[in-house]
Structures are given as structure tokens and as C-alpha cells.
């Protein structure tokens, strides 16, 4: 910068123009119920006029911004695609595993021999830390042509409606987990009758296994994680205040099945539309839908 030229003058003008057009834009910190982390990232291309380097920018928000960065990339890229790629990689580092779960040593991120993906590798004990999806198990309980639903008393999705479901535990089967979750959330004893839907959500590393079930006795009441439990007629299901896309898909598939006969078994992949928040449960596509 010891010899500023025309390009630098142009850059200063850009900055001033940017400031003038964004004086009424700011970060707002306000309290909401959502506990989701949402990230946005972008880059320019060779915006640094001296060294032709591009700029990485990202922001992660959870109601309010929690982490953000705008920095020159460490190497010169040859295309806008490459610049974006570097940005996504850098933003993705936020979620990286930094410590070994076996010995507590710090990790490095490399592609191990014979593998294809970057993994966290412990620099002390050498173990590779693999991340695998989690299994969520639950029950779709029909009773007198109504569906048993729970209103969540915990985050995420506090106050919204869901089917009784939760993470499967080590040492239990999917069906046992679904029965246990139903007992915990709705104090209801159920008998599992058949698998109804397996729904994968690759973006958040979850797979849902929902079973059709019947109440053993017609008793239920809210468990510690529910504020309310009730049976909904199919026409009255609160589609405007459901907790998760997975429940929306499950209930829609079930209602479609019932309209034309009896429940089938469904498999599908729930892909969230890019750039949408996880709390926008209607912003998804159901891909690779198979039924039998
Ligand atoms: Zn280790």
C-alpha cells in the first residue's frame, strides 16, 4: 500500500458506498425459544487487489449471532468455486472435534490412509474419531381413530407438538426404545404393531424410525418432558405447530395412507432446503420416497 493507485481509490469508494447503504442495518440480540444453530457463509473472488486473495465470511446464529468471521483466505484461488469451497470448509471447522474422546489429546484433521473423508485423528493416541448418525425412535399411536400427540415442555421446539419419540439408547432395540420413549413422554403403555416409516435427515445426522402402536390401556398423561398429551382427530392435527419436519412427514404419510386404505411402510430422505432455518419445518423435500 505504499503506492496506492486507481484500483485502491475504487476500493475505498466501494467501502464508503457499502457503509452508506447499510447504516440502518445491525445485529439484533433478542430472546427467542429456538436453540438451533444456523450458519451462513460466502466469499468474494480475489477481492484483495494487492495479492489477489479472496475473503471468507461466515456467521453462525442461534437467535443472535454467536460466531462470525471475515478474513482473507490463506492461498490464492483460481476460481469463484474454489473460493466458495474454502469458505465452506473454514465455516465447517466450527463443528470439528477438537479433542480425542478416548484420551483427551488434541486432534488433527486429515484423510486417514485408505479412506476418503477428512476425519479427526488424535495426535496423542492416534485413534480416529468417527462421527455417526443418531437414531431417533418413536410411536405413532392410533386410538379410536385419533393420534396421540405430546406438547414439548423442553427445548428444542418448546411448546410445539410431536409424536412420542427420542434417541435410542445403547443396549435396547429400536422397538424397545420407541416403547420407552412413549412411556417417558406420555405415561402410556403401548404395544408396537409394525414399522411405519424410516426417515433419514443427512444434514443433521439423524434417522427416524417410527412404529405404529396401540395403547395397552386407554391411559396417558404428560411425562416430565411434555406439558400436555392428547388424542387428535386426523382432521384436527396441529400442522401449524408441529415440532419437527420428521413428524410432519410421518403424519402426512399416515393420513394419505388412511385415506386410500391402510398404513404402508415408508422410507424417505428429508432434505432441508438450503438456507432455511431448522425451525422452518415446512422447508423440506422428501426424496427417494419408497413405500411397500
Ligand atoms: Zn487419543
From TrEMBL:
Q: Name one GO biological process term.
A: flavin-containing compound metabolic process
PROSITE patterns given for it?
Answer: NUDIX (PS51462), NUDIX_BOX (PS00893)
The record's annotation in SUPFAM superfamilies points to: Nudix (SSF55811)
Tell me which UniProt keywords the record has, alphabetically: Hydrolase
**Mind naming one GO cellular-component term on file for this protein?**
chloroplast
Q: Which residues form the Nudix hydrolase domain?
A: 132-255
As recorded in UniProt, coiled-coil segments are none
Q: Record keywords: Hydrolase included?
A: yes
Output the superkingdom of the source species: Eukaryota
Q: What is the protein's given name? A: Nudix hydrolase 23, chloroplastic
Lineage, please? Answer: Eukaryota, Viridiplantae, Streptophyta, Embryophyta, Tracheophyta
